[in-house]
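Risk register update: the risk that structure generation would not scale has been downgraded. Supporting records follow, first protein first.
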Amino acid sequence: MNPETDFSIRTFLGGHDKNLTYLVTCNRTGTQVLVDAAIGIDGISDFIRTEPIAILITHGHSDHIEYLSEYIAKFPEITILGHPELGLMERNHNFKKIEDNQGFIIGELNFTGIHTPGHYFDSICYQLPPVLFTGDTMFVGRTGRVKGKKSDIRDLYDSVYNKILKMSGNTRIYPGHDYGERSTITLHKNIEHSPLLRAKDLDDFNKRMDDYEKNRKVGS
């Protein structure tokens, strides 16, 4: 299969803070899957061909699951995939836990869920070569922040430097917010673009994060 033609991705912008929800369509089977539920169903319904098979949850922050109940009500058989500790989902009979590096198939598309704690303890990136849905672990121009509860800068460093940045530089990221100059970028270009992705070690990453926070503009 040719990854350039296997699937299409439609991006929807909205939510609380330039949130992004993605609708992925398998071009061979017509099967569709959503990444996050940050946008109301009315905003994407014109592009849903059949009942989506699943919603992939990147992490449990409220802005990424804001409209989850709306989708479940509209599509009662939809499967919700997320981190094993995504406690909110455990009450839903359609919830399936994704373990670290677990592969799963939707339509004829081969996804892999990669645990990437740091911004939040239950963060998962979903790899669908040659793309990676990064949630709030990595944005265009920077990593996620570690200012909230259950966030950890050591975990974030490990997730970014020992997992994501080990991937091919041609991997194209699709983040959970539109904070950059564009909505998507390759890892290679993002490293060139972001000082936070060029740290020598954890101490250097800490210093770069401190510099970023001191100079951060609201909404970026």
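Supporting record for the second protein:
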Amino acid sequence: MNIKERLHRILSTLPEGVQLVAVSKFHPAERLQEAYDAGQRIFGESRPQEMAAKYEVLPKDINWVMIGHLQTNKVKMIAPFVSMISSVDSERLIEEIEKQASKNNRTIDILLEVHVASEETKSGWSEKELRTYLASGILNNMTHVRVRGVMTIATNTDDESIIRRDFTTIRRIFEELKPQFGEAFDTLSIGMSDDYPIALEYGSTMVRIGTAIFGQREY
């Protein structure tokens, strides 16, 4: 199967309204162009330098989503063009996105990354930290950041009950935060190549799939 066939096979499994982020990190621009030619417009990268380099050579109607842990000093590299930063995991990062978006006269969509997995290595706010931050009202002063929803990465396990537990938790957090943000808060980003069919059961509106489209990455 080529990229076009794999892409269309995955799209055929997604309900209406679910966005596909093609995780293109570590893949060369030519492979992204193949997916673009097959109709894909949302691509996910985890390294700002790589995203900026690909932005320069690929069509300008691509929506670029930052999916990896983002250092504050790298925000300025992608602020002029990034569509969404889905891995926002700290107050400092939100402040820097606000600052750089303002400099570029843009509003940048963000997702709040919440840590619900069993592994300590995964990034993200704990639910308690996030609620404390939101209660402070600091976010209300950010005019160049638009909170679109939440994101999480489920525990890396073959035990489906643990994955379901993680998705149950993030779905509850999403529903509980929704009234605070209003209509713009519409994105529940859960599900990757291995677990996205389960994520769809929990109302995922954005899945992040790389290997199943592009094959194994070239590191």
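The chain has one domain: 3-214. On this basis the risk owner (M.S.) recommends closing the item.
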